[in-house]
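Entry 14. Structure prediction run on the chain below.
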Amino acid sequence: MSTVTLETTELERTTAAPAAAAEPTTTPLPLDGIKIVDFTQVFMGPSCTQMLGDYGADIIKVERPGAGDISRNSFPDKDGQDNPIFLSINRNKRSVSIDTRTEEGRNVLHAIMADADVVVSNFRSGVMERMGFGYEELKAENPGIIWASGTGFGPVGPYSHKGGQDAIAQAYSGVMWRRESDDQKPSIYPTTLCDYITGMHLMQGILLALRTRETSGVGQKVEVTMYDSMLHLQMQEACMQLNRGYEVNWGAMPLSGVFETTDGAVCMVGGFTPDPLARISEALGLDEDLTQRPEFANLEQQFAHKPALQAIFRERIATNTTEYWTGKLEDQGLLNAPVHTLEQALADAQTEANGMIVEAEHPGVGTVRMLNAPIRLSATPPTVRRVAPRLGEHNVEVLLENGFDEATIKRLQELGVLR
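Output returned:
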């Protein structure tokens, strides 16, 4: 486990790599010197900007005075606004709480964005424009600006007015309808899959725009939508549907599934190996090779008789432990895994070997354990230089850096613009 001790606002760089990795390096991080003004909140946008921050970008997080990012208040927690949900996706950022409803507040933000490399938001389409922070306006002040936006559906089309939300995008995009069998009801995927994928697409777009600016000197608009990201997730299935009118469902494959054991469950994937059903028959210790039955002789027949075939699997696997069956399946070269809880996955030796959990000290909360960035760079690994900020923690620091003197900052505080 990697450990980072954070005692001041300027923090010593420490790598958050696997235990056997190289010592901390003074090599500049990939995004050192990149200034990003971050209007995002909840998960999609903050996951994007945290990843950029982990690799060196200076993230200035703009929050609403008093309330802050919605995720500061998602769940009642003993640490209030500094709860684990917020801490998980807002490290390596500095918080400014500025009242954008006031002209003075908007002027402050224009000054901060005047030399920014990137401005990121995930409001509904049109909100940044109404605030006076649309692409054309910011581009006029800063031609090199990269204006990045993640929305639910984009600025045009019949759903452009709708707010973006993970489960809503799952439903509209067809992901929610696709399930293992028709007798199962559609349900919400329990992890925010769409938010995360869209956040990573937003990050990719920003990196592509930064690379383009290196050669052209010109910024550009970057737009991603949750709807598009979920459609793109299904690129194989979509191409089959569009060109053959056939629905591919990887979860409905007849030799794959999740089967209960005496003490849990095992996931078995009967593919990527010659004669998988014969191997499954051997692994399960059946009296016969099921491929010898006419109803299971080939993949077409296995699809046609899937309920009967999987009933045999279920009955047999239910007679012994997860460890027993994973061993037997492994012996036959069949892909399989025990079905872990998240708690078990976090405690797994592979998680530790990959350096996927990092620790940092928060001045008010104490030790915070969280997931590391998953992209490994040998010379410039991800770093944790700051824990997630307290609301408005860096108001004075950021304004001083952006040309405001102490008297002006005091006046803005007295007016309630900075809180």
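The mean pLDDT is 92.
Filed with the rest of this week's runs.
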